[in-house]
Amino acid sequence: MPSALDPKTVNRLYLNLSKSIPEPQAELFFRNNFELLLAVILSAQATDKIVNEVTPALFEKHPDPQSFITCGEKKLARLIQRIGLAPTKAKNIVRTCKILLDEHKGTVPNSRESLEKLPGVGRKTANVVLNEAFGIPTIAVDTHVFRVANRTGLAYGKTVLETEKQLLEITPKKWKKEAHHYLILHGRYICKAKAYDCSTCSIKKECLYNQKSC
Fold first, then answer.
1. Which CATH class is domain 33-134?
2. Where in the sequence numbering do the catalytic residues fall?
3. pTM of the prediction?
4. Cβ-contact 123, 116 below 8 angstroms
C-alpha cells in the first residue's frame, strides 16, 4: 500500500520535523567511520545510551581493527558485557575486523554489498553507515522509523524493507539525507510506542493517526 499522504503533505511533514529537530544527528558516540561501524553493530537490540557508556573507553583501548583482533573474542565479550548479546557481538566484531584488514586495507567499505558481507551487519546497519559515513541518502528503518511511518500514514509497509522502499519513493530528494534522523528522533522522544503526546507533536496536522485517534 503506498503512502496515504499526498506529496505536498509529505513535504510539509518533513519541513515541520526539520523545524522541531534543527540539527538532526546520530546519538551514538563515534570519531571515525570504524568507530561508527562498531557502535552500530553493538547497538543491535540495545539502547544508544548503554552503548555510549561503554564505547568511549573501549575505543581508547582499541582504536583500530588489529587491536580488536589482538584483544580476542573472550576478552572483548567481557568488555561489552553490559550492552547485551556480548558473545555474539564480540565474535562478529573480531571477524569483521579481520575482513576489514584482509579485504579493505583496514578501512570501512562504502558499498552496501561489501558492508552486508561483514558479520553483524544487516541492511539497517549498512544504511546507517552509508548515510553517516559517506553521505548517501539511505533511510535506515528501525522500530522508531517503522512506527512513525506507519502511524502517520507516510508509509504502510508490512515489513521493514517495504517501509524503507516506500519512504525512499515518497520522500522528496531534499529531505532524504536526513529523513531517517528526523523519523528516529521524533519516534524516540515524541511519537513513542505508548507514552506519546499528540499535543506536543510538530506534525500533528499532517499525521493521519492524530486526526483519527488523538
1. mainly alpha
2. 124, 142
3. 0.93
4. yes
